[in-house]
Structures are given as C-alpha cells and as structure tokens.
Amino acid sequence: MHDLNEPATAGRIAQIAVVGSGPSGCYTAQFLLKADPDLHVTVFDRLPVPFGLVRYGVAADHQGTKAVIRQFERVFDSPRVRFAGNVALGTDLSVAELRENFDAVILATGMSEDRILDVPGARLAGVVGAGAVTRFLNGHPDEAEVPLVCGSDIVIIGAGNVAVDVARLLAKAPEHYEGSDMDDDVHQRIVPGLVSLTLVARSSAETARFDRAMVRELSEVPGVAVEVVGVNAAAADPKSETLRTLAATRPESARVRISLQFATTPVEILGDARVEGVRVRDASGERVIPAQTVVTAIGFTGHYAEVADPSVHAVGWAEHGPTGTIPETRADAKGVADAVRAGLDTASAPMPGFSGLPPSVRDRAVGIEHWKAIDTAEVALARPGRVRQKVRTWEGLLGHGPATVRHGQHGQERTDR
Ligand SMILES: Cc1cc2nc3c(=O)[nH]c(=O)nc-3n(C[C@H](O)[C@H](O)[C@H](O)COP(=O)(O)OP(=O)(O)OC[C@H]3O[C@@H](n4cnc5c(N)ncnc54)[C@H](O)[C@@H]3O)c2cc1C
Question: H/E/C letters for each residue in 326-350?
C-alpha cells in the first residue's frame, strides 16, 4: 500500500485507462492527474464526443448544470491526458487488451437503458422510456429517429427528477427555451399539440423521489397549470407542503394542464395497435387516464462493470447502479482514484498505454481536438436565442474535426448504433 501523500509511481510513468468520459470518468481522471505527476491517463468513449449524460441526459434548459463540461475540458488540456473517442469497450477493444497495455483500468461506462414497466401493454407503440426521450431531445446520435409524436395527452409514469425533467421539457413552449441548446425543430416534432400531461406515481407524495426545486420549476413554466392529486391534506412533510402550495397557485387559463397524481398505481396500458390510455388504481378504485403517449420514467438499468482483477476498478453508475447526481460521482471518483494509486505496482516494467493498442483501435480513435472542432461548429450554428445547435448523427459527429482528415471513413461504420 502506498502513502497517498506521496506520488505512487516513484518516478515511473504509470498508464491508466478510464473507459467512459461521463462525470465519473472525468472526475477520476482529474483526481489522478492532480495527485501524481507521473500518471498518464487515456479516457476512452464509444461516442466521438465526451461528457456522457452531462451532454446527453441533463436537460437543455439546465445550462448551469451542463457548465461542468468546461471544468472537464480543462482535464483534457493536460498533456498527460488523451481522449480516445469512437472506441467502444466490448466491440473495438477488450478489458484484456487494456490490461496488457495499462497499469490500471477504470470502468466508468454508466448505465442508461430505460427500465421497462412491468404491466400489460408496456410494449405498445406510443410507450417510450424517459432515457430515450431525453437522449432524443439532447441530440444523441443513437436516437436520430423521432421516438414518437406525442399527441395531445401524455402520461408520464414515475415521480423522480427525470420524470419531472421530461414533463417540463415537453410542456415548455419554444419561446421559453431562451439561453438553452434545445433543438426547436425536434421539440416541435414530438409535441406539436400538447394539452394535458399526467404524472402517475405509485409512491406517496412524502416518499416520491423528486426534489422540491424541480416541481417548483415545473409549476413556473409559463402557460401551465399544475394540479396535485393524492396528497394527504394533513401531511406536514416538506414535499407534501410544496405540492399543496403549487396546487394553490394554479392559473385560471393554461396552455398545458399538468396533473401530479401520487399513491396511484399503473395497472395496464390500454390500446390495440398503439396507446389509448392508462388504467390506474388509487384509494378510490380503478380509472382510465386517456393518453396517446406514455413515457416511463421508472429508472435505468444496464450491466454492472465486471471487476474480476485487482487492477480493474469501476466508478459511478457502472459501479453502484443508476442513481445519484453529478456531484455524487465526484465523491465516488475520489475514492476510486485513491484506490488505483494505492494499488499500482511500481516495480513492474513500464506499460505502453495507448500506443501499445492495435492499429485498428488507434486509427479509429478521435482525440479532444475533434470535440473542440464539434464544439466550435455547434456554437457557430446556434440559432437566435440558443447557445448551440447540436450535431445529431454519427455521420455528422465523425465528419467534423481533424480526425476526418486523418482517418477518413468513420461515418458509415457507426450509423447502426
Ligand atoms: C435524463 C437525466 C438527467 C439528469 N440530470 C441531472 C442533473 O440535472 N443534475 C445532476 O447532478 N445529475 C443529473 N443526472 C444524473 C447524472 O447524469 C449522473 O449522475 C452521471 O452522469 C453519472 O455519471 P457516469 O459517468 O457514471 O455515467 P454517464 O454519464 O452515463 O457516462 C458513461 C459514459 O460511458 C460511455 N460508455 C458507455 N458504454 C461504453 C463502452 N462500452 N465503451 C466505451 N464507452 C462507453 C458513454 O458513452 C458515456 O459517455 C441526470 C441523469 C439522467 C439520466
């Protein structure tokens, strides 16, 4: 075990691979660099652009949260860090290949598949996961196709922050996205005529997972009226109190009506070819909420990172599952960076790092200058009132930047992901 107040590497350069450039990968790289001048870090990502859910999950109108990207960019300014985008672990390279070329491997691949609701009708056309909707609204290249056209009535199942984010994003009119990077064409294609939006939550108001600031923000969207159902009138907890305040300030006329329904269990999604409604059960029995679209926001799933070898570590959502905020990943990253440094074997022969990987991997990788070119192009393309216009396709993302000149034909290879 090394003394963590001293550089762990004793003058020998140690090569560290971080797979995944979301917050947990970026924070881990940042801690490693700061702690030890002899550590060199390569951050891989399957996408040609970095920053994971900060770019592709956090809402377009929460640019303050997305600003952490500027902090992460400074990590890549270090000559000891390389970004290797467009390289997927499991497809383009294996953990074994990383083990052969790096002193330690850190898996920070996240977990962002939508959990499927376990009720009849959950796979009908018109049912879509919140992750798919937020990826689509954020211009993720895997969601280039319109996932749905919502119709006038939407039911969102769930009452966590992602459910509230989706409600706000769908309910807001284009003129209220000032200062965001929302793509208006895309937004209008999916919510051309929204009238009513119902959030259905099995949990009580007291135990629902939303943050109070998030529902307050929802109620402040211009042109929406918020109704709250299923909140115990006598409950004195902060969430119930916040919800009661929202209900009391309901405007008379509204473009979109939002109903937040707690202690309400979805029983079945109804429809023949596609969604027509949701049957729910609450204390007074069963009823049907009409809907042309159901967005399930009941959490995420995926594969936990496999850590069979002491030189392989996992961090963030890939390590503990799909919960927690960006600041929480920072705390995880600190612990993992310390564990990596403590476990380094400084007596062994130096490792080659990125330069030891097969040419097939090195040639397809795009560096941070590729991201910088995309960033510059997106900002330059921004429409009035917007801070950027995102490049939305694999082809477009691989067609920008110096890597195109160097490596040519990537565009066609990844349109299937
Ligand atoms: C819709 C949504 C909104 C959110 N909004 C907020 C918010 O406003 N504020 C907040 O604090 N938190 C928010 N969060 C939570 C926050 O995004 C997470 O805490 C954080 O992103 C988790 O970081 P991570 O690095 O573990 O995973 P991710 O951010 O998912 O990063 C994983 C990275 O790994 C890459 N990857 C995956 N598989 C591979 C592979 N096989 N090979 C190579 N690379 C791979 C991915 O492309 C991605 O870049 C939100 C989450 C969601 C889903």
Answer: HHHHHHHHHHHHHHHHHCCCCCCCC
